[in-house]
Write a structure and sequence with these properties.
Layout: E1 6-13, H1 20-30, E2 34-46, E3 49-55, H2 58-71, E4 76-79, H3 85-97, E5 103-105, H4 120-130, E6 136-137, H5 141-148, H6 155-167, E7 172-176, E8 186-191, E9 196-201, H7 212-225, H8 230-246
Parallel strand pairs: 1-2, 1-4, 4-5, 5-6, 6-7
Antiparallel strand pairs: 2-3, 7-8, 8-9
Amino acid sequence: MQPLGRALTIAGSDNSGGAGIQADLKTFTAFGVYGMSAITAVTAQNTRGVTGFEAVSLPLIEAQIATVMDDIGVDAAKTGMLASAPIVALVASCVKRYNIPNLVVDPVMMAKGGDPLLAEDAREAVRSQLLPVATVVTPNTPEAEVLTGRRIETLEQMRRAARELHAMGVRWAVVKGGHITSEVDAVDIIYDGTEYTELRSERFDTPNTHGTGCTLSAAIAAGLARGRDPLAAIMRAKQYVSRAIETSLAIGHGHGPTNHLVGVSTEW
């Protein structure tokens, strides 16, 4: 049996399993996609927060990407925690060198508990080097504020942010509005350079949302790897994440993970 696509996650490792490459690989599997990884950093974390991390050396990150591309190849890739400006620059260079298609950028800046995961000097590298080679970018509103330098408190400000992100070179900007508490629904704004699309989903009263950003971006990458067009991949990913939050797991004593197995049979 052949997998329905090949997807690569370039991200940090979450040893607690709720976010990072662990969440990405689970999501790829849920979509029937063959998942691979290039680890950029190793973290020590759980549902309550991050206690430490170490970045992987640049030569080893590059070697991980190169060995996958030289042998298996990919149909889509995504980035998560990139930690530093040199890592961002290296990943952008590899995307161009190996003609990696369908890149989804999740501009991970903070862990769910507020711990920083991206150095300040790396933010400009994301704007100037990574977004121009990306197909989709998926910031939440705090991340979009950092990337655009503007406050975002309304849907109209989300639309403006999406427009400005698109102007940085990315083809599709997805600004996630879960932090906009004035809205009854969780609203995401999508902009492709011509049209805005508004995606709404129910809010669920649960603290178990660890890894939602990783999961959404991985689901979009999986859809692209399966040949969906970007808008269809984004819409399907939104549905998947909503169900994963609705059926989230009460694991640990902090922010538990979403349910990556939603829709996947667990019958033996």
